[in-house]
Amino acid sequence: MPTMSENKKAGKADTFLSWTLGVLACLWVAWCCGIGPLYWFGTGLADFGWANVLYMAIAFVVSFAILWSLVRYGRGERVLPTYFSRRYVKLCQEVSGTPTTVLGIMLRHLSDAAHSRPGRAIHAVIVWIGRKLTRCTDCWWKLMLLFVIGWLWIPTILLAAYGADIRSQIREFSWALNQWTGLKQPYIGFFSFVPMDIYPTAHYMWPANPTYLTDQHNIVLTVFYGAFAAVSRYFTDSNDAGIVALAALQWLFAAFCCAATANRFFNLPWRRLGVGTFDFSHPERHDCWNMRDFTHPEAGVVARPSRLRAGAKTRFVILLFFMVCPLAVFATISLTKSPLFAFAFVWWFGVWYELHMTHIKALPTINGKPMKLRKRSLAALFMSSCVMLISAKYAWYIILFAALLAIINDRKRWKTYVVALMLPTVLIHGGLVYLVNSGAVIGGDPIESRGIQLQQIARVAKYNPQGIPEDAAKKLAPVFNLDQMAESYFQQDADPVKSSGIQSKKVSYKWRTVTKDDMKDFNDAWWQIVKANPQIALDALFAECFGYFNVTDLPYVSMDYYVNNDYVQSDNEWIHLYNHQWRNQVAGFAKKWGQIPVLGWVTHGNLYVTLTLLIGAAEVVLRRWRSLSWHLPLLLLMGVMITAPANNFERHMLPIAFVFGFLCLEFWRESRAARLAAREASYVGTSTAGKRRIGGHRIDR
Asked: Can you tell me where the transmembrane regions are (predicted)?
């Protein structure tokens, strides 16, 4: 048995390690903010100076202050000065018992001229509106209706938003359809140029029997989008009607996902069931529960209505984000894989919250069995996992990682995780592997996952070509043209180095002639170049990822791009004729808003990524390991951003931005118990002056 002194030493060690991780998170944010100007003006770490140190210091102070405030709040300690807390409590007492009509509010708070104060009436009106808002969002179908009404202008005025990806998917399916109908088409050949050459996919990966479907943009989405476009061409002689229909379907799916998750976080619908019974050995766990019938304990318990739901202010802020922020507004109709994955992730994240809240430690019973997941929630977890898997290739890593953590953390419900997480992963990912191995589908080129390595090689080839070792150059010669890599290098995006695209293609990646054996020496050549040029290699790494954690960095590609790019505004049959100028105005307004210092940060995903990282650091310091375990997929998504082929690409940040408000609500709820305990501990009784002290604040009786 460890002694008390040993326990204290272990506690101090844990505190030191947890705070160390928190400080490291703040240092990473500060570093990304400090080096931002170096890459904005095209220099590099060689020009790092005192100005960058000053930027880092300011960013670290702000980040650590946020972390410190979150930790104090999570422990139930006071964050703001006493004055603000006392004024708020007093104002709430003044408007208690507010009438249920605006007229009654005015008569109550403005009729007595001697004691009237407009602030009381305004606050009372806000309270009344909040009650109505709570009633309008107390179930999922009301929330669904609210999202549909709030977003109705998007598909009706903007129709659809898309880029090059869906055009490539439609082209792939069209070529495959021509093959299925017996039309002869070019395949492998030096003078042929087929859809697989656009991104491109190395010819050594192509099966001997001609096939034109690839997993470059996820095969299920390619077939789905391509089929809609084919039907549209059959009836209307253009792809436009199919694209508009796909945008409308994604818009409906987005409204459903956001409504379902908002209902779970706002109203906790599973707690209305009154499942379980009291555990009298742990009465402190039941501050939110009442017995259904004290004469019949077997009837179970029911949650106290006053503690069931989120407050009106919380609902308003979260709903306002989805209704106004360009990230959410434009993503609803943007036909590319990332928005679809993001909305499916929101749905998935909501079910995870239900699993977290019905964990046996959060909702104990006498027999020691955890609450079973509702059938609708089990189906939702299964279906959201399927949509995530068909929309993003990295989804299976996230789902499998989450499943393993959940089975370790919640072993008694292992069947739920096997059915809802592992089964769809095996079926969809396993089915895709089978299709690729059988030659029916061409798999994605592994060069797509080497964005950082390619940028490092290309930057060295551009700024220090003499620094490339001779052996490394020989090993890379069958794979890349180093001169073309240097010419096509762009620090924000790795696609030009990969020869991606159809306009002005530079053949830096020799996808036509490279072989599988040639790729075996790629990692060794890359490592030789990095060792010989460490500073340039670090420049390439940071230039491609710093913007995701620098709130002052403007996005490389923002979501408004998909609204008014050339594909939407020019290169189609009739979509560009519908509200052409209005689309430019909407996208221009969003871009101008995003360029406003500080006020524009709320329109950028890197603000929510940075704050999410700090919230995760606060959970580490607070040792909320069970909460942290189901938040780790957010950290994995940040890793995906760092390894993505482009810097500060907003569509990669959508999942974290969409769930950020719900994450804050969950953090507040978990901190509530600590705050209540701190208030009880700080009670010191009533003084002779008729004062009492609650929660550190002196309040009149």
From this structure: 21-41, 53-71, 140-164, 187-206, 218-235, 241-262, 316-334, 340-357, 378-408, 414-436, 628-646
Spatial contact of 362 and 397, defined as CB atoms under 8 Å apart:
no
Residue ranges per domain, the chain? 164-236
What is the Cα–Cα distance from 78 to 84, expressed in whole angstroms?
11
- What Cα–Cα distance (Å) separates residue 665 from each residue in 25, 266, 353, 486? 22, 9, 11, 48
Which helix (H) or strand (E) segment holds residue 698: the answer is: strand 697-700
The CA distance from 436 to 347, in Å, is 29
Burial 469-502 (b: 16+ CB within 10 A, else e): eeebbebbeebbbbebbbebbebbbbbbbbbbee
Instruction: From residue 448, give the alpha-carbon distance in Å to each of 335, 488, 497, 505, 548.
Output: 21, 16, 11, 17, 20
How many CA atoms, within 13 angstroms, populate the side-chain half-sphere of residue 610?
30
Residue-wise pLDDT for 503-534, tens only, equals 556 789 999 899 999 999 999 999 999 999 99
Instruction: Tell me the two tokens of residue 430.
Output: 């396993």
What are the φ/ψ torsions at residue 37 (nearest 5 degrees)?
-60, -30
Q: Please list, in sequence order, all residues whose beta carbon lies within 8 angstroms of the beta carbon of residue 654, skipping any fewer than 6 positions away.
A: 327, 331, 338, 339, 341, 342, 559, 605
Amino acid at 648: N
Contacts of 289 (CB under 8 A, 6+ apart): 278, 301, 302, 303, 304
Residue range 224-237, pLDDT digits in tens: 999 999 999 999 99
pLDDT digits (tens, 9 = 90+) for 245-289: 999 999 999 999 999 999 999 998 886 544 444 444 444 444 455
Inter-residue contact 567 to 335 (CB < 8 Å): no
3-state secondary structure of 455: helix
Distance of CA 44 to the CA centre of its chain: 29
Could you tell me the two tokens for 51?
């100005």
